[in-house]
Amino acid sequence: MDAGGAKKSSKVKLKRKASSLRSSSSKRIKASFTSAESLPWKTVSEPVATGFDEEDGILELEEVDDVEVVYEDTDRGRVVKFNVLQKPDESPRRDQEPAHEPASPSVAIEADESQSPQLFTFDSATLLPDWHHFNLHTHILQVLHSRKFNSPTPIQSKAIPPALSGRDVIGVAETGSGKTLAYGLPIIHHILSHPRPPTNQRKLQALILAPTRELALQVSDHLNSFSKVVNGDVMEESEEVDPTPGESPSGKPVVPIRRHGCRVPLVSVAVLVGGMSVQRQRRVLDRTVDVIVATPGRLWDILEEDDALANQIRRLRFLVLDEADRMIEAGHFEEMDKILRLTRRQSKQDDIEPERGNLLNAAEQSTQDTLQTFVFSATLSKELQRNLNKRLRHKGGKKGDHTPLSTIDDLLLRLDFRDPQPEVIDISPSGGTVSTLQLSRLECLSSDKDVYLYYFLLRYPGRSLVFLSAIDGIRRLLPLLELLNLKAFPLHSQLEQRQRLKNLDRFKSTPKAVLLATDIAARGLDIPAVDHVIHYQIPRSVDIFVHRNGRTARAMQKGFSLLICSPEESRVAKSLLAKLGRREDSLPAIAVEMTLLGDLKARVHLARQIDQQQHKVKKQNHERHWLKDTAEAMDIELDPDFVRQAVTHPSASEDESNPSRYQQKRAETKTASLKAELRALLSKPLLARGISAKYITFGSRPIADDLLEGNAHETMLGLKRTDAGDDLMAGKIKKRAKVKKGKTGLEEQSEVRP
Ligand SMILES: Nc1ncnc2c1ncn2[C@@H]1O[C@H](COP(=O)(O)OP(=O)(O)OP(=O)(O)O)[C@@H](O)[C@H]1O
């Protein structure tokens, strides 16, 4: 059936227009979709004419013409396909096609099982005008369209053309600006545009090195989303002799991508990271892949025992260093260096390992010359870029006539760029932070940080990523936040990989959650909609600060960053901000409703006591049982008298570390009563100053109106719901209260109101 249709805007169901076209249309297929949402709907200006009125809930109508609806039986059952047909006057004649049209192969789909495949070209000029001039492979355009990536980001606009034309690229752009696809799309385009053997024996084309496991997995997910069939049966050009294929503009046959009766990905991407089964990763490599995304450590482990893979890396077509600078910080220099040696040409190799260089034959040597190198980061310093350029200009100079500035500098200079002058694209913002990011600060004593953090998390519920400098801090804060009924997840290097990914997924899928993380989460992680980044401790370097902040305000979304700073950290904070060209007091302070802090402090104090108590009981239990457990494990029978003596040692009858049952019972009762006390506190509403708990219309700040409007804060009565960015105060905090000797930090703090 070929039909026109109309649909309501987001809230409205699809409504077909009466006109229905012939089922076997002779029109050419322009594009094909499996979801009606992807069709080129046009808004209808007069919804009344359709017979709908507002009471039907209709806000707006959209219609689409020249769509053929096809039902098809596939391996996955019956699927519906929507073919957008070309109007007769739109159909380009073969002989009229401009010479500069995309070199990329066309994608064909089977419109009907009974018919031979029809050819269509994705009309990127109409559907994706901003991407059209890149001449990317049709499949890529389809995915971009289905993902609603309607325009390239600035780094993509600048990096994709030189990368497609074979240049080496060094790209520096703010966090969350789409760097992955800036290097990823040219790679995928190359792979899709070059015919490959029909068997699974693919040649490794690209190696992408990333500093952390999470980032490597994320990059591979990103690329994988471009490796699968999106709308209908995607075909590719093939050298295979196939009896009934369609034909691409280049004259080569196009065939459905089905091997051994099942679909194989258009581009196969393997991830090699630590913390996951090496055997399984080796098995994946045995099947051969197009792209490897790896952390240097695991890749080198595998390479040491896999000469075939080492040979493939010598003949790579693309080498990518994502977050190159972080690779050094993560202590990967040595492995990186060894891997990079494999990618150097013989002439360069001779400097390092003459014997290995001689092993390369002429064919390998020539493929080596086509290697393209992409280096991307949000924080490659200008100094490094200058130095790199200088070095490349003096490539022919004497050995050792330049002294590298730093380790990363040294590493990048070990890269054997084939391009005499790689394209350096630096569109990083001045000051290192994204324009949609709001930076702020909060000054307090270190001992009060927990209370202020708790205040912030309650006051501004959302997805908050809290960075701490040490794992111990996370271990301490996690139970505290959990006892305070906040959903918190840890992320640090001492967690098993599986647990790390699980926690990340939970955080991603929980709208109001806290991720307590060390700096392993600072770089590259693309977590949708992180509302707040909180620096519980000042980061060690400007780069880490920039990357931590980069977890929020991604892809032009708004984001908020809070630097919690104690007096001891003030000097470090000052110099950190100075490096970003900012003064400390140029960061607005977040206004805190001080009257609430007393209650919050009581809750935090109780939670801490409970945690300590639980910890003590756990430790006691462990000590009580270790002897029994060890004996059981060793299959030894213990003399009961000996056990009694050991568990209740005479000199330790009152010792907390070796208590009697009675003491343990007492500890458990104490924990239970503390928990009950905390429960009571948590159930009591937090009242802002001037609020009457009994009469919501009384007091200096009546809240009835806010409640009626649904504008009242859910846990802090008397406060309106606000975003953290709404509660900022420029300049220095004015101290109202005089600091009295002997007072605690919280009492010393000045009162600040929005
Ligand atoms: N052209 C585009 N249009 C819309 N969204 C895009 C586009 N390109 C990428 N994105 C999305 O933007 C987000 C950030 O992309 P990506 O992770 O590549 O950023 P990045 O620059 O590598 O960040 P970081 O420096 O933090 O690693 C991702 O969710 C990605 O899907």
TrEMBL record:
Gene Ontology BP terms: gene expression; ribosome biogenesis
Skewed-composition ranges (Basic and acidic residues): 87-100, 744-754
Recorded catalytic activity of this chain's protein: ATP + H2O = ADP + phosphate + H(+)
Domain Helicase ATP-binding: 160-398
Annotated stretches, region: Disordered: 1-37, 83-112, 235-255, 648-669, 735-754
GO cellular-component term (any): cytosol
KW Transcription (keyword) present: no
Compartmental location: Nucleus
CDD domains: SF2_C_DEAD (cd18787)
Positions of the Helicase C-terminal domain: 450-598
GO molecular function: ATP binding; hydrolase activity; RNA binding; RNA helicase activity
A UniProt-annotated Pfam family: Helicase_C
Enzyme nomenclature, EC number: 3.6.4.13
Membrane-spanning intervals of the chain: none
Keywords linked to the UniProt accession: ATP-binding, Helicase, Hydrolase, Nucleotide-binding, Nucleus, Ribosome biogenesis, RNA-binding
Family designation: Belongs to the DEAD box helicase family.
UniProt protein name: RNA helicase
Native source organism of the sequence: Pisolithus microcarpus 441
Lineage: Eukaryota, Fungi, Dikarya, Basidiomycota, Agaricomycotina
